[in-house]
Design a protein that fits this description.
Length: about 850
């Protein structure tokens, strides 16, 4: 029998209440893992999916997914939560009778394990959306069978419902599914009901559903990947209810699963569970605010009631009590001879706000805590938290010795912020010229409305899809500060991989954009700049740390032979390939043509000698271009080298810097590095002059990228500050500058795309962007010095932006050196 309360030290609950405030939910990660372990022990052949609807907290999901559960989601937020919790698309099922187009589009982009289709109409809709994306999406059909579950507290099938496809219609829908070229039927789904506490009911359900599946499969051409038999396992809440007998359930269900498996070896049985997994791990804690007697009944009024724990309050019908205990000074056993029935209420203006009726307990005092067990499911997620404006409570997780706030309490500011009026332009009547809406908060996260950016790359819809990368970038950005190898976490993300390999010719690219989930198959230069700007809002370090074709890629394509192109790009067919563009010299002035590196003869053999200082992860680069003077002719040359070809002739040293560590500033020294003719660019008939033109072009195309990084970083800092929206007036002018500079950047991009780059404009916009981000940092330190001092991420990102001033190809090498000497050796 599982305990009705997790085994948490009661003094700790007291301390959490003092520190985090009340009301709050407290989850125990070990209980979450224990539930999954018990299920697996009872039903070893079954694949378990966690239904986020029962508790979509990111950390709860992360623990359960981290312990092996798949994710069953019903909304965009639950889908993105699963991804952030680490789930790969193959471990996500989407179920729900009214999925929106946005949700479906995202699920298809990701290529999730299956979208569970609930009607014939939805089948057509998903097929059309998948066609638009040029994809084939896996689907499962949700069946509303003719049988129903006897012992469920809430029946959801076997009767008229909005869920699934009636069994009688199934043959027609199956035929329809077969004719949909962009759908692949891979599963069946049935969900009979919830809060089942008798194992016989589960056994009957599983048996019935597997029989139905056997019947259906016989009419299909290919086997199914899975049959989802639902779940609905209950947990005891009320007096007299007992725990589901998992042993008996396992003993009866396992033979059914085994015999189904014997005849359908390719088809896995899936069970999706919410409450059973999340419920017992959670307790709800609220504080007594008032006690009183009214007409003979005793009341304790608490600071959280049905508004934050609707499950304990029941939903209008006769309610019973969840497990409830009174805590005082870290103890639950309170001696009181006069224990009597108490009604526990919340702070709402309705008599229905009752979370405990006639609870026999010691006399509560103001300040005591009330803890309610079995509360991890449907309380935190299904409660009307906005009623009377109290907002969502805090959520805390205990995991062994770690204690974490896993959801902060809603703040008054944030709830007011989303209510600031903004101009609603109806699609049918849009007329930007007559709209004089003030810059409103709603515009904050879409810098592309009515501001000169419409129809430019900065309003491309795929930019919004990058938002899902925000946490990954912010977390990795912080880690890069300590460990330059942290970029691998970025590479694991399919979208980031595809973005990294932009510029790699298609035949060498194993990670094309069409697989990225962004809904695009190629990325013109302007969109690339816009993406860099968007990602820099999250963290510019990450962009710089990624092992892409760097600035060398363009030069190799412009001037390399086919063999050289293949040598340079071939690595991207299978994995990441770090590259470098070693042009600048540490002590030879600002211009590459002044460089001291040489390509000369030693003992009759060609060798390279020289020293370069550069950003871009040269320490882990596989291949790159090295600029040198050819001794014999006095001309300039570009040589493609792979440091691992002659490791004894290469020394690479990471240089200490005090910022933008993801850029990984390094020094590379070549000593008599052996060179053969086929390594020299331009030697295969293509003029080396083309190569230098290409280098110039590479720098001209890169400068707007640096500008975009600076603008994005500044904007990201402002967004961090505006997490408290009352600060908006202090930053509004900077938001306007940001937009104005994006408009300038668009002009530069258009000139580039028309092959008429205006060198001066490019430099100007870069300088202005750098000065903009500098201004943002000054404003933050002027306006919010306390936040600046308290927030390590803010300080780090403010520090990092200084480096943009110095990041610019050859003509600013002196600045790069100044930057280095200014910051070298200053450890964090
Ligand atoms: C389709 C579906 N799956 C899973 C669940 C989760 O149910 P429970 O939390 O009872 O396991 C529900 C609950 O309504 C549901 O409708």
């Amino acid at each position: 029998m599982t305990a009705l309360f997790p085994n948490t030290d009661l003094r700790l609950i007291d301390e959490i209440a003092t520190t985090a405030g009340t009301p709050f939910y407290l989850y125990d990660a070990s209980v979450l893992r224990g539930r999954l372990d018990a299920l697996r022990a009872a039903l070893p052949q079954v694949d378990f999916f966690y239904s986020l609807k029962s508790n979509p907290n990111l950390s709860v999901t992360r623990v359960l997914h981290g312990h092996g559960a798949g994710c069953e989601v019903s909304s965009l937020l639950e889908l993105e939560t699963s991804l952030q919790a680490g789930a790969t698309p193959e471990r996500i099922l989407m179920v729900g009778p009214g999925k929106s187009e946005t949700e479906l589009v995202r699920a298809i982009e990701l290529g999730i394990k299956a979208i569970v289709v609930e009607s014939a109409h939805e089948l057509t809709q998903i097929d059309a959306l998948a066609r638009q994306q040029g994809r084939v999406q896996n689907i499962a059909l949700r069946v509303n069978p003719d049988f129903h579950a006897g012992g469920a507290k809430l029946n959801m099938s076997g009767r008229p419902t909005q869920f699934g496809i009636d069994q009688s219609e199934l043959p027609d829908v199956l035929k329809q599914a077969e004719s949909c070229a962009h759908l692949q039927l891979c599963g069946l789904h049935a969900y009979m009901g919830t809060r089942i506490l008798t194992h016989e009911t589960v056994v009957a359900n599983v048996g019935n559903i597997l029989n139905l599946a056997t019947e259906v499969v016989s009419s299909l051409k290919a086997p199914l990947d899975f049959v989802d038999v639902g779940g609905g396992f209950g947990i005891p809440y009320y007096d007299g209810e007992t725990e589901l007998d998992l042993d008996a359930l396992g003993q009866a269900v396992t033979p059914l699963v085994q015999s189904f498996g014997a005849t359908h070896p390719k088809t896995r049985v899936v069970i999706e569970l919410g409450r059973y997994l999340s419920g017992p791990s959670g307790q709800f804690v609220t504080r007594v605010q008032q006690t009183k007697s009214s007409k003979g009944e005793h009341f304790a009024v608490c600071d959280g009631g049905s508004n934050v724990h609707v499950a304990a309050a029941g939903q209008g019908f006769l309610r019973k009590n969840f497990p409830i205990r009174l805590l005082r000074d870290g103890k639950a056993e309170i001696d009181d001879e006069a224990a009597q029935p108490w009604t526990l209420t919340g702070p709402l203006c309705t008599p229905q706000d009752v979370i405990g009726k006639s609870v026999l307990m010691a006399t509560p005092q103001v300040g005591d805590l009330i803890s309610i067990g079995q509360s991890g499911a449907y309380g935190p997620t299904a409660s009307p938290v906005n009623f009377l404006g109290f907002g969502a409570p805090a959520e805390v997780m205990i995991d062994g010795t770690e204690l974490r706030l896993v959801r902060s309490r809603d703040t008054v500011e944030a709830r007011l912020a989303v209510q600031q009026p903004s101009d609603l332009r109806l699609a049918a009547h849009a007329n930007p010229s007559t709209s004089h809406a003030p810059a409103a908060l709603a515009d904050l996260y879409s810098s592309a409305t009515g501001n000169g950016l419409e129809g430019t790359p900065f309003s491309d819809p795929c930019l919004e899809r990058l938002t899902g990368l925000q946490t990954l970038f912010r977390e990795t950005g912080a880690r890069l500060d300590r460990d330059p190898e942290s970029w691998t976490a970025l590479w694991e993300n399919p979208t980031v991989r595809a973005l990294t390999t932009i510029g790699v010719p298609e035949k060498f690219n194993g990670f094309p954009l069409r697989d990225s989930g962004l809904g695009i198959s190629d990325c013109p230069y302007g969109l690339h700049v816009a993406m860099v700007e968007r990602l820099a809002r999250f963290d510019a370090n990450c962009i710089l740390s990624l092992p892409g074709p760097s600035l060398s890629g363009g030069a190799v394509l412009a001037t390399g032979t086919d063999a050289q192109i293949a040598r340079f790009f071939d690595g991207y067919r299978f994995g990441p390939q770090g590259t470098f563009f070693a042009v600048t010299e540490p002590d030879a002035g600002s211009d590459a043509s002044n460089g001291r590196s040489t390509l000369g003869l030693k003992d009759g053999k060609l060798v390279l000698n020289g020293v370069k200082t550069l950003v871009g992860g040269i320490a882990r680069a596989d291949i790159g271009l090295f600029f040198a003077h050819i001794e014999e002719t006095g001309r300039m040359g570009l040589v493609m080298i792979a440091p691992s070809d002659a490791p004894d002739c290469v020394k690479i040293e990471r240089l200490g810097t005090n910022g933008l560590r993801g850029a990984d500033l390094c020094q590379m020294t070549l000593t008599d590095f052996p060179v053969t003719q086929d390594m020299i660019l331009g030697s295969g008939g293509r003029s080396l002059r083309d190569g230098f033109m290409a280098i110039n072009g590479v720098f001209e195309r890169n400068r707007p990228m640096v500008a975009a990084m600076a603008l994005g970083s500044g904007r990201g800092l402002i967004e961090l500050m505006l997490e408290d929206p009352t600060r908006l007036p202090a930053y509004q002018d900077l938001l306007a500058s940001h937009t104005a500079l994006l408009v300038q950047l668009v002009k530069v991009i258009r000139a580039q795309e028309n092959r008429r780059p205006k060198v001066q404009d490019i430099s100007k916009v870069k300088m202005q962007a750098v000065s903009f981000v500098d201004q943002v940092v000054r404003r933050i330190t002027d306006q919010d010095p306390m936040r600046f001092l308290q927030d390590a991420e803010l300080r780090r990102r403010c520090r990092d932006v200084k480096a943009f001033e110095y990041m610019e190809g050859t003509s600013n090498i002196h600045l790069l050196n100044a930057y280095r000497s200014y910051t070298a050796g200053v450890d964090q």
